[in-house]
Amino acid sequence: IVLAIVLAVICITSAVKGAVRGVLGINGNQEAYSYSELPNSPYIATLYVEGTIQADNVDYLGRSYGYQHAWTLETIDDLIYDDDNYGLIIFVDSPGGTIYESDELYFKIKEYQDITERPVYAVMGGTAASGGYYISAPCDKIYANRNTWTGSIGVTIGTIVDFSQFLENYGIRTKAGTHQELMKKKGIYFDLYKSYQEMTAEEEAIWQELVNEAYEQFVEVVADGRNMSMQEVYNLADGRIYSAKQAIDAGLVDEIGGIEEAYYNMYE
User: Fold this and answer.
1) Closest CA to 116 of 141, 80, 88
2) Cα–chain-centroid distance for residue 93?
3) φ, ψ for residue 15, nearest 5 deg
4) 102-138: buried (b, 16+ CB within 10 Å) or exposed (e) per residue?
5) Beta bridge partners of 46
6) pTM of the shown model
7) Strands 43-53 and 120-129, how do they pair?
8) Could you read off the pLDDT of 54-81 as tens digits, one per residue?
């Protein structure tokens, strides 16, 4: 899926309006804070989800940066069982990520809502597309900056490059091992993602079925979160990007605003 998110910091804001905002956790590092460091007075948590949503983000030296999936889920668990927490704001600035991690974060947000019955608001930054919208959909209210790009409700397996004609032109032939050929004759396909042979109709159908299933799941997530019918979402879910105004008109976003608006409106 072009589902793609960075957890830079977790900001803890006092539930008393106008109070000073504290910061816990730097660069999404799992060791950056401990449960004991959470405020011991009422507060609203602001969880920053920025960048690509995937299992690990590490540089060539193995150092963590950006969105850290396990840390994010564990942090929400901490908030669920903290009686001083009164709500959660999720700031999303992401072009998308993987299906698996996006869906896990989606379910963790739903778990927070179901167990605590506390409000969860999404606040969109410059981009909240695909996976970024996927995790925003279950939130009780969605705010977007007036320059936000969102939507991109769709699924892709990426680009499969077919070099078969190039190889043929230069007289280069390929042949799978005997075991692979034998397995394929039995109807087992474990080398679907290949670039050295033209994809068969049967292989294309297998890929398409996987994409269709993930797409239906995405549509259901949006329909459930935005109280829309499946058909209403189908009409919007063609992979396109929407401006903030277009998203509001389509029912995908509630209001133009940022973290401050979300914070003050949460406890009106």
Assistant:
1) 80
2) 10
3) -75, -15
4) bbbbbebbbebbeebebbbbbbbbebbbbbbbbbbbb
5) 11, 89
6) 0.76
7) unpaired
8) 887 777 787 777 788 988 999 999 999 9
